[in-house]
Amino acid sequence: DLVLNGVPFQLTVIGGAELVANYTVLSATGTILATGSVGSFAQSTASGLVVNSSADLPLTVQVGQWTEELNLSLIPPWFSLLPPLVAIALALVFREVITALFVGVWLGALAISGFNPITGTWRLVDHFLVRAVSDVDGGHPQIVIFSLLLGAMVGIVSKNGGTMGIVKAVAPFARNARRGKLATWIAGMGIFFDDYANTLIVGNTMRPITDRLLISREKLAYLVDSTAAPVAALVPISTWAGYEISLIGDGMRIAADQNPAGAEALLSISPFAVFVQTIPYLFYPILALFFVLLTSVMGRDFGPMVDAERRANAGNGLYRPNAKLATDTTGTVMRAKEGVSHRLRNAGLPVLTVVLVVLVGLYTSGRTDAGPEASLMDVFGAADPFDTLLWGSLAGCLVAVAVSVGQKLLTVHEAIDAGVAGIRAMVVAMIILVFAWSLGDVTETLGTAEYLSLILSERVPLQLIPAIVFVTSAATAFATGTAWGTMAIMLPVVIPLTTALGGPVTHPGEPGFGILLGATASVLAGAIFGDHCSPISDTTVLSSMASGCDHVDHVRTQLPYALVVAVVGIFIGNIATAYGLPAPVALILGGLALYFMLRTFGRPVDSTSGGLP
Fold this sequence. Notes:
- It is built from 25 helices and eight strands.
- The chain has helices at residues 82-94, 97-112, 117-134, 140-159, 162-170, 177-190, 195-212, 217-234, 239-258, 263-268, 271-278, 283-298, 304-313, 345-370, 376-382, 385-406, 412-424, 427-446, 448-455, 465-480, 483-502, 511-533, 538-547, 551-578, 583-601; strands spanning 9-13, 20-26, 32-39, 42-46, 59-63, 66-70, 300-301, 603-604.
């Protein structure tokens, strides 16, 4: 898969247990480009292999007496931006995301196949789609199974009357649209330990309530999406925290290696302390959570969301006519069986089981890896989120079946049929998700993120580093569809860059340390912002799925909100704090700016009647 200058060449040797192969990579002119050795059933990455021009091709790999010629194609670096940009543009223009994603993945497959359209089509299926489904380390099959099991649980609790039981229980509080949105925001804030669990549980649980209150599916998707990753990123006890801290530690070690004079001081700073101190500088996630609350309480919206909310509030449809829902909620799947009682416990017990099993699973798996003396935050950081999500969703399904059959609300056959129907309703979302992952693989193979970092990493004034980092991280996450991947790429680069420009950091009280905190926080904040805006993001897809919303409609209505919050965060947060404004003051001023902006430009959308009786 050598398609760009500097992309690693990988060699795998399959043979006896004692076999070690020495290899040499030669250019067409006989120049040695890389050498190394690799053992059986292992891969060697020749990271120094760089093909400068077509004159170096074809390459020759020599392993002992064996040689093979590699007829590769050099692709201009700008082509790495084409697949994600084409996919995003097609999705937004034609409002049809599956075809758009297909075209984006095909462009990437075309590139790695030497621009042979037939071979490129085969690579789309046997290379990218297969790798997307089978990426266990990335959690892809676990997320698919978790989503399908949760869909089955939703199908069962809908059939046994549990969903309507939730509606009845919440009805005294959520008597109108504003209170319904506020209840959704509270639920999103409450499930803070994982963004995937947050999205799927809150969306599926609150959808029947918001439907009853005539809240548009687009608004529900926004409420769900904009409370999931932001709250998980802010809370130290979450699946995000350990990942962020490990990346911060890597960045500090790299910075120490590049700066021997300040190495001791850099290594003495705890990555956990840096993480905690970056929280006030996470302007986009904090202001995004506040803006969700503002739009809910004030009953005002702007942009395409106004039309969506007024359409729903007037009783003209919870979603746009001809919308292609990511989850099919139009049939009888989500309707209770005739004659069953609408009881809260029929849904509450399965949902509570999912939450408790995931929390206990995170604690136990993290305790095993982190050790008995580790702090609670370290335990959650070391936990395996993907396996625990599987345990929780399976436990929720089993409890839903037990509750339904035990009370004789459903027979075993009816419960299984309801579960299968719930799975079937999520097929479209799973297709979108797999294609989105495939496009992410395309961007990784073509080096999209590395190219963006290269063209955006010019030397700038120290005070503008946080803002530049935010924009770069946002562009990377938007193009690749992954916040975690963006953090993995950016943090080991940003921390050494900031310490190099700001001088040696000897203690947290130095001015340069504040810039370091702002730049580090900007990586995470920018990644979440780009993830919110990108139609190829897995969390954006899951939000559409859990809310039963047209995926492109969700992106179109959420995009203006994300942009407004980001602009306020950049100017009042990133830039102002870099020039000395305290972070808490910046957050207060940013919140006030969002309030007055919504008060001035927002339009009322909630009627006084507030939903169906």
